[in-house]
C-alpha cells in the first residue's frame, strides 16, 4: 500500500504521526511525508521519505498577519486558523496534487490543520484519515477554516465539506476518554491510538542529566513554536523555581540559544531540545504551556502538571487536565514568579495531582500502539462515508 502523510511544518504537528508512519513502513508499505522544505530534514532524521509541498511556517505566518481575516477576531486560535486555512492550504494543494499524480497513494494520512489533503483525497477518490495531535479542534475553529477552504473544494468540482474534510473517513484519536469524553463530529469514525512521546528512549543526554535524582526534578517547556517560547516568557518560570529544593530541566526550542536566558543557578539546566522519552522518566512534575505534545507526554509518564496556556488549543487542554485532577493552571495574567513557586510546590506536596496523572497514564497504556493501528488500518479496512 502507498501511504501519503500530509503534515504542516511544525514539530508539534509532525511528531504525533511519526510512530504510525514508521510502523506502516516497517510493515512493508511505501510511505512518503509531504510537508514544507523546512521540515524535510526532520522527516529524514525520523527515518522517513519526504517530499516538498507547501510553504514554510515562518513565511505562512508572516503572510497570515497581513490578511484582513486575522484582524477580524481575537480568538486564541486566530493566527493559526488564518495561516492554515487562508495561506497554507491554497499554496500546498497544487504541489500536493503534483506529488500525488506521481506517487498515486492508496491512503492519505493528514494532520487536522493540513486542509489541502482532504480536498486532494476527495478529488482522487482516495480515503483520507485525520490523525489527531491533541484534543479535537474547537468547533468554531473548524467552522471558520471550512468556510475559508470552501473555494478549494469548489475549484476541484466538489461540494464544500462542513468540517473542512476532517471527519469524512476516519480519525485517529490520541487522547484518552477521561480527557475527552465526547468526540463530536468524529464519533463513530474514531479509532484510539497511543499518543507519541517525542524523541527516542536511547537518545544521548547532557552529562548533567546523569546527576539528576537526588531531589525532585521538574521539566519546563514552552514548546517548539517561536511565538510561545520567546525568552521573556521563561522569566517568571525560572525565577519562581530557582529557590525551590529541586532540579529544573528547561528546553527553550531550537530557535533559541540557551545563553539568551543568561546565567542560571546551579539547579537549573537549560538546553535547546531533549528527548522527552528519555528525560521525563527522570522527572517528578512538568511545567509547560499546555501544548498537546508535551502535555500528553507528561501524562504518559504519570507526571502532574502546572500549565500556563497562551494560545492555540492550549486553553481547552489545560482545562481538561485540571478537570481530571492532574494539573493546576495559571492563566496568562497570573504567571508570576510567586505563583509559579506556589503552584509547583503544591503539585509536588499534594499526592492527589500525581494520582490524577497516574490514572491517565494507566488509561494511555491501554490504548493500542502505532504498530497495532497500522495493521488495523490495512486488515480492517477503512470506513468511507
From TrEMBL:
Out of the domains of life, which is the source?
Answer: Bacteria
Q: What class of enzyme is it?
A: transferase
Q: Name one GO molecular function term.
A: UDP-glycosyltransferase activity
Q: Where is the Erythromycin biosynthesis protein CIII-like N-terminal domain?
A: 23-135
Boundaries of every Erythromycin biosynthesis protein CIII-like C-terminal domain copy: 237-378
Stretch forming the signal peptide: none
Keyword Transferase found: yes
What EC number(s) has UniProt assigned to this enzyme?
A: 2.4.1.-
Please give the InterPro entries that the UniProt record associates with this protein: EryCIII-like_C, EryCIII-like_N, Glycosyltransferase_28, UDP_glucos_trans, UDP_glycos_trans_CS
GO cellular component labels:
membrane
The reply on keyword Transferase is yes
SUPFAM superfamilies for this protein? UDP-Glycosyltransferase/glycogen phosphorylase
- UniProt-listed GO biological process terms: antibiotic biosynthetic process; glycolipid biosynthetic process
UniProtKB keywords: Glycosyltransferase, Transferase
Pfam families, alphabetized:
EryCIII-like_C, EryCIII-like_N
**Family (UniProt):** Belongs to the glycosyltransferase 28 family.
Q: Which PANTHER family match?
A: STEROL 3-BETA-GLUCOSYLTRANSFERASE, STEROL 3-BETA-GLUCOSYLTRANSFERASE UGT80A2
* Record protein name field: Glycosyltransferase
Q: Which species does the entry assign this protein to? A: Nocardia seriolae
Lineage, broadest ranks: Bacteria, Bacillati, Actinomycetota, Actinomycetes, Mycobacteriales
